[in-house]
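Consortium newsletter contribution from the modelling node. Members have asked for a concrete example of what our holo predictions look like. Here is one, prepared for the zinc ion complex that several groups have been discussing at recent meetings.
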Amino acid sequence: MSDLRELYQELILDHSKKPRNFRVLEGAPRRAEGFNALCGDRFTVFVQMEGERIEDIAFQGSGCAVSKASASMMTAALKGKTREEASALLAKFHDLVTGQGSPDHPVDLGKLQVFAGVCEFPARVKCATLAWHTLGAALEGKDAAVSTE
Ligand code: ZN
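And here is the predicted structure:
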């Protein structure tokens, strides 16, 4: 089993130290809160839609480096995307971190590829996917808070 430190690649460290879109999106009609009891990660994701397109997206909260970097990179990747594209990316990201991509059909996610190593650490999968599940709830307009438990 490789060392957990391998997860903390430069990109993840950078995003966890200087998270992008880390702010409250005032007046955002769509928001959802996610909580990962296993690690204590807790984030609120804000989404401002324009029609079917994500006009702005931001997040607030606290968590470990993996969860924060994942949330940060998610917001950077999804701004300007349509709801459909966001859902597709969410599914792909989930496949990536749970190791469901196959050699024939590797999950291609650009920069988000750095999270591929997470699949070796089941406890970390919840950290990496927390913001994404929370976004999914925000897009569906669910009021209920998301919990990974
Ligand atoms: Zn965590």
